[in-house]
Amino acid sequence: MARKRKKMKIRLIHMVICFLVIYITLIFWNQRKLMDNLEARKQIILAEIDELENDIDELNEEIQSSDTLQFVEKVARDDLGMVKPREIIYIDKNKKKNPFFTIRKKQN
After folding, report:
1. To which H or E segment does residue 20 belong?
2. Are 76 and 82 in contact (CB under 8 A)?
């Protein structure tokens, strides 16, 4: 009878140890998965930060050059659709229509 109890205690201890090992393994595996996900998100955010810093640098350069005549001419040509006197504009009808010209046509 005493032997049987000893065997049951040993089996119970083995089962508890096995359960703890499995539980700890699952916890570590889950934490590793979470760490990998966080690392991937970190890389994406760092890439976005680099892109935004580049945009900021470009905008700062544009602000610094905004006082020049070339900048004013660029804005007038690109954004406002203005042209120099006696300048001829060729429009390719096969290309996507320029929204500026469609707006101007609607206004007339």
Report:
1. helix 2-64
2. yes
Residue 61 gets the label, from left (phi > 0), alpha (psi -120 to 50) or beta, of alpha
Residue numbers of the domain that contains 91: 2-107
Asked whether the beta carbons of 63 and 57 are under 8 A apart, the reply is no
**Statement: the pTM of the whole predicted model exceeds 0.70:** no
Which residues have CB under 8 Å from 91's CB, separation 6+?
A: 98, 101
**Domain count for the chain:** 1
pLDDT digits (tens), the chain, 108 positions: 667 677 777 888 999 999 999 999 999 999 999 999 999 999 999 999 999 999 999 999 888 888 888 888 888 888 887 888 888 877 777 776 555 555 554 444
